[in-house]
């Protein structure tokens, strides 16, 4: 029974023919595996730790070591693998803080370069997204592979044919592209605190909650630094009309459209008529949708300052369902790093500082979905632009730091491990485990879900009820304050600015090397 469960859980991932375990050799020196366990209930469906250790001992003697990336805990104590384990944990379905990558690459390189018979065993939970992104990053940064070749190799070795890519989460693929650029330009990374000035959203639908998140606790935890409320948004074009209610929300989540189902039941002889009807229906639907959306600028009432250059913009769409419930119809997020979006690697290769401000843009279709999938539910908006700037205030302890890859043979620090039992694993990501469906409505969710609605109703609480933001190391309630100096975009009514109207990179930066 346990063997059957393991096969079901492994699913699309290839099984090693000799070991009979959920693992693969990405190269002769890199092994990717799902997270092993020595305790129940995980032991029933994960790689048994004892079998994994026995296989590694048999094949590689004492020439193996583990790199684990699980913020949820490894599931085993270090002593069970002879203490040969390096800890660099971050939450599932997300990329890591980029400042962690030089450490991971250097520690793997130091281990492997000492003996050509050594192997590095990487694992997360499924041995796919986190393990795959770090395997690809190593091949790119330390062995000179092209990014597309590294991604293809991992897929070929880790996945069963026809079961998709090994690394498929858009933000993790974006991080691999960052590693490629980092490698090509001197492997220099500049860590800075970042302020999110504005969030521009084109084609925003009703009931969408918008949050700004970032890493804390060495990357083990993703913190919600701010959730926009309705007094922090300006609609500059269009009108965001309320949706049809609970029935429409259920239909949207289930992906059922009765008109389309009826069309598919038509006979082949009516194909031409069907196509005409569908074309007319799509045109009317698009026109109706266009009239029900708006272009919006979200401006925080207090500065949103993240401790690293890694920024996550999170979206959740809810429709009221009555009886104190709401229907979550869309979930999406996107990670980006301001050093790379500000042409940091390219500037570093010519000894120039990275851009001190910029704009990150993305379409809805390119966003990350639910639990590492591309599934996002109903569409929440058309396009997103985030206006950001680096914060360089040495007097307040905000100083950029230049991070380079530790040289060969040097001691490479680890980040702190998560509790291996998972006892302290308490929501390391605000969206962890989130899915579509019915949810209880809270005062906070009620307020922020109105942030994209233009029509206010009686009975709605105050604009700030239950909503808090993390500002300058303290949790504070919203207060409407003037901070025009913090905003680099001219505020006025009218059409939402296009990309060329948004602030470009500024080259006013104190070189951290000179500090």
From TrEMBL:
One of its GO terms (cellular component) is nucleus. Residues 473-493, 503-515 have a biased composition (Basic and acidic residues). Residues 395-515 are annotated as: Disordered. GO terms for molecular function: phosphatidylinositol-3,4,5-trisphosphate 3-phosphatase activity; protein tyrosine phosphatase activity. Keywords: Hydrolase. GO terms for biological process: phosphatidylinositol 3-kinase/protein kinase B signal transduction; phosphatidylinositol dephosphorylation; regulation of phosphatidylinositol 3-kinase/protein kinase B signal transduction. PROSITE patterns: PPASE_TENSIN, TYR_PHOSPHATASE_1, TYR_PHOSPHATASE_2. It comes from the Eukaryota. Residues 12-186 form the Phosphatase tensin-type domain. Gene3D superfamilies: Protein tyrosine phosphatase superfamily (3.90.190.10). Its EC number is 3.1.3.67. It holds the Pfam family DSPc. InterPro entries: Dual-sp_phosphatase_cat-dom (IPR000340), Dual-spec_lipid-protein_phosph (IPR051281), Prot-tyrosine_phosphatase-like (IPR029021), Tensin_phosphatase (IPR029023), Tyr_Pase_AS (IPR016130), Tyr_Pase_dom (IPR000387). Residues 98-158 form the Tyrosine specific protein phosphatases domain. CDD domains: PTP_PTEN-like. PANTHER family: PHOSPHATASE WITH HOMOLOGY TO TENSIN, PHOSPHATIDYLINOSITOL 3,4,5-TRISPHOSPHATE 3-PHOSPHATASE AND DUAL-SPECIFICITY PROTEIN PHOSPHATASE PTEN. This is phosphatidylinositol-3,4,5-trisphosphate 3-phosphatase. It comes from Aureobasidium subglaciale (strain EXF-2481) (Aureobasidium pullulans var. subglaciale).
């Amino acid at each position: 029974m346990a063997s059957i469960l393991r096969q079901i859980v492994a699913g699309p991932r290839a099984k090693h023919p000799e070991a009979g375990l959920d693992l693969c050799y990405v190269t002769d020196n890199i092994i990717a595996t799902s997270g092993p366990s020595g305790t129940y209930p995980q032991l029933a469906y994960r790689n048994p730790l004892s079998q994994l250790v026995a296989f590694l001992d048999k094949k590689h003697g004492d020439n193996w070591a583990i790199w684990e990336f699980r913020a949820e805990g490894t599931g085993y104590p270090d002593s069970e693998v002879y203490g040969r384990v390096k800890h660099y944990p971050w939450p599932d379905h997300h990329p890591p803080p980029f400042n962690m990558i030089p450490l991971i690459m250097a520690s793997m390189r130091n281990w492997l370069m000492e003996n050509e018979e050594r192997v590095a065993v990487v694992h997360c939970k499924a041995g796919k997204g986190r393990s795959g992104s770090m395997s690809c990053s190593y091949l790119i940064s330390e062995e000179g592979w092209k990014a597309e070749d590294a991604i293809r190799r991992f897929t070929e070795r880790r996945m069963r044919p026809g079961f998709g890519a090994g690394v498929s989460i858009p933000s993790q693929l974006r991080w691999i592209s960052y590693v490629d650029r980092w490698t090509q330009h001197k492997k220099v990374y500049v860590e800075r605190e970042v302020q999110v000035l504005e969030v521009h959203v084109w084609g925003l639908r009703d009931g969408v909650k918008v949050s700004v998140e970032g890493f804390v606790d060495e990357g083990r935890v993703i913190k919600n630094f701010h959730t926009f409320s309705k007094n922090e948004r300006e609609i500059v074009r269009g009108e965001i009309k309320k949706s049809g209610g609970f029935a429409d929300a259920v239909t949207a989540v289930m992906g059922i459209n009765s008109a389309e189902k009826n069309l598919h039941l038509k006979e082949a002889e009516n194909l031409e008529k069907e196509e005409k009807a569908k074309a007319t229906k799509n045109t009317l639907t698009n026109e109706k949708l266009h009239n029900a959306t708006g272009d919006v600028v979200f401006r925080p009432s207090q500065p949103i300052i993240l401790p690293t250059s890694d920024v996550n913009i999170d979206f959740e769409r809810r429709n009221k369902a009555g009886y104190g419930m709401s229907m979550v119809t869309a979930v999406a997020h996107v990670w980006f790093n301001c050093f790379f979006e500000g042409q940091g690697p390219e500037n570093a290769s010519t000894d120039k500082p990275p851009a001190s401000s910029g704009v990150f843009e993305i379409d809805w279709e390119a966003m990350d979905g639910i639990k590492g999938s591309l599934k996002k539910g109903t569409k929440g908006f058309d396009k997103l632009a985030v206006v950001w700037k680096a914060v360089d205030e040495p007097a307040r302890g905000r100083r950029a730091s230049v991070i380079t890859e530790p040289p060969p043979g040097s001691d490479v620090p680890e980040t702190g491990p998560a509790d291996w039992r998972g006892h302290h694993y308490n929501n390391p990501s605000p969206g962890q485990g989130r899915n579509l469906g019915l949810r209880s409505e809270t005062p906070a969710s009620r307020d922020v879900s109105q942030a994209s609605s233009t029509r206010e109703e009686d009975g709605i609480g105050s604009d700030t009820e239950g909503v808090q933001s993390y500002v300058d190391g303290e949790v504070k309630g919203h207060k409407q304050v003037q901070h025009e100096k913090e905003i680099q975009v001219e505020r006025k009514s009218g059409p939402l600015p296009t990309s060329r109207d948004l602030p470009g990179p500024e080259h006013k930066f104190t070189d951290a090397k000179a500090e």
